């Protein structure tokens, strides 16, 4: 109860620290989401409609990668971006960009695997039609994506949910630096370790509220658009 | 596509500034709020912007060895000296000190409070069959705790998972575990005083020389790590060691208690002879 009151207080007083952290969380996860969607959606679609040896294995791999522990992703990206790692010269470790990279690695398989499932169902229905119309290759991928756009929003929301809620990867590659790479989840971890459980729970409540708003917004837009289309 | 470009541009807009350094640090100095108090003062005096990455001492040292920091601020004397001896650090200075304390439930089932020294305190915990929550994470506090068990001729690993609980986490997380289970915990005093979830636990044993806790500061060697901002790293280090910095450290209080103590001037000269 105290946590709810604290969450409410933080929001209505427009606590500047809270909004800085919240904004960084949103920014990092949204950018990661856009990049992951740009890679994951066409990849999932392409794997659904093409046939080649090893395709099944690719799909299996994507599904397995969905369960990749964030802390492992964090570790791999850390070793890559570390000053003594192969990409150390970029100087990206402990920046928001490093966090974005880690989240892209984490959520691209989710978006690809889930969209693959959606498109595969659609493909059974449409493959003959598309074939007879001569729609193949890249044009077919685009056609499927456009056609399945409403169903695909769920895939995208799943990716966003994973990105915004994740702590294991971003705390390693971001370092939880105040005013630089501190996001909602790493702030919650820090407050918990300080024993400020009420504040930690309040931040959790704010994060949950954000997630709720984003989901409501996306689903609202989807319903509205679907309605207009068939009206 | 245009949006993507804007997004990516936004992402990369947080470039590092010339006078920004990264400090690989132990957690107690962050969790106790010391940095929140010191860094604005430092910024005002020197213009140096300090980014703190707070992890356990063991991890901080390894991160610094991979050149992922400009300065190392930890508390494990022998490891720090090895770090410098191996060429990773420019030099090491004693920065400040406080002490470790043994935390436990107020009822104190092992009667740790009545122990004459820390060895006896640990033996009492073992004999009473009481639980002990250990960091288990190779941090400075963990190393200290292990050395104390060794001095007490007790092998806690034999009871791992039974009475000896290795959390593998930071000081705060371990305190949360210890407090919830009514277990004994070795903590640095600063983290405990500023810890907000004390519940029924309290300091039961303290004030013995064996529990001395020395913090050291080491600028990372720029010859080994060319990315190191040598000038800013030195400015930061020297400011903390200066009269201004030392006085600021001594002035920091939580709940009316001083958390970190300045290194006595007479020690500076002797310890520098590494």
TrEMBL record, chain A:
It is a multi-pass membrane protein. GO terms for cellular component: plasma membrane. SUPFAM superfamilies: MetI-like. The keyword Transmembrane helix applies. It is found in: Cell membrane. The chain crosses the membrane at residues 24-48, 60-81, 93-114, 155-177, 197-221. Residues 22-218 form the ABC transmembrane type-1 domain. Gene3D superfamilies: MetI-like. CDD domains: TM_PBP2. InterPro entries: ABC_perm_TupB-like (IPR049783), MetI-like (IPR000515), MetI-like_sf (IPR035906). It comes from the Bacteria. GO terms for biological process: transmembrane transport. Keywords: Membrane, Transmembrane, Transmembrane helix, Transport. Coiled coil: none annotated. Belongs to the binding-protein-dependent transport system permease family. This is ABC transporter permease.
Automatic annotation (TrEMBL), chain B:
Keywords: Signal. Coiled coil: none annotated. SUPFAM superfamilies: Periplasmic binding protein-like II. InterPro entries: ABC-Tungstate_binding, PBP_domain. Residues 1-18 form the signal peptide. Residues 17-243 form the PBP domain. It comes from the Bacteria. PANTHER family: EXTRACELLULAR TUNGSTATE BINDING PROTEIN. This is Solute-binding protein. It comes from Marinobacter orientalis.
